Amino acid sequence: MSQTIDAPRTPAYPNRSKGTNWEKWGWIYMRASGVLLVVLIFGHLFVNLMVGDGVHAIDFAFVGGKWSDPFWQIWDGLMLWLALIHGGNGMRTLVNDYARSRGLRGTLKIAILIAVVVLIVLGTLVIFTFNPCPAGAPADLLPSICKGI
């Protein structure tokens, strides 16, 4: 009795339909977003902790001043989006590796997707609609940075 061993590059599922390989694109995204996140995070830490008075300068006025500049809004928004999608994709990979039943896997992946989408929407709204000095607000409720405006 002889047994044939498949060639090393033989697909595990030869009848699989030809379509988009989402696992490959997820893998590529993790590498690309990881490199970009390192740059964004270290830039964020450098500006917040090393420039000026460092950590002692971080307060409401610092964030208000930073987010009044579109450059920093885009920087922080990009960091938020990349980090949440990167983390969600990592969690999806863990679910695929460790969840045994198909139903549990699907439920967990839907929960991850909902959490990522909600956090991206809320975080993006905060970054791009943040106004430390809203018009018509009572003066006693406004922060000190708004007194001269």
UniProtKB/TrEMBL annotation:
Q: Which domain of life is it from?
A: Bacteria
Compartments (UniProt record):
Cell inner membrane
Per the entry, which co-factors are needed? Answer: heme
Where do transmembrane segments lie in this chain? 28-51, 71-89, 110-130
Q: Which InterPro entries does the record match to this protein?
A: SQR/QFR_C/D (IPR034804), Succ_DH_anchor (IPR014312), SuccDH_FuR_B_TM-su (IPR000701)
Is Flavoprotein found in the keyword set?
no
Which pathway does UniProt place it in? Carbohydrate metabolism; tricarboxylic acid cycle
Q: Which SUPFAM superfamilies match?
A: Fumarate reductase respiratory complex transmembrane subunits
| UniProt entry keywords in alphabetical sequence | Cell inner membrane, Cell membrane, Electron transport, Heme, Iron, Membrane, Metal-binding, Transmembrane, Transmembrane helix, Transport, Tricarboxylic acid cycle
Topological category with respect to the lipid bilayer = Multi-pass membrane protein
Q: Which Gene3D superfamilies match?
A: Fumarate reductase/succinate dehydrogenase, transmembrane subunit
This molecule's function is given as: Membrane-anchoring subunit of succinate dehydrogenase (SDH).
Q: Which PANTHER family match?
A: SUCCINATE DEHYDROGENASE HYDROPHOBIC MEMBRANE ANCHOR SUBUNIT (PTHR38689)
Name the record gives this protein: Succinate dehydrogenase hydrophobic membrane anchor subunit
**Annotated source species:** Paramicrobacterium chengjingii
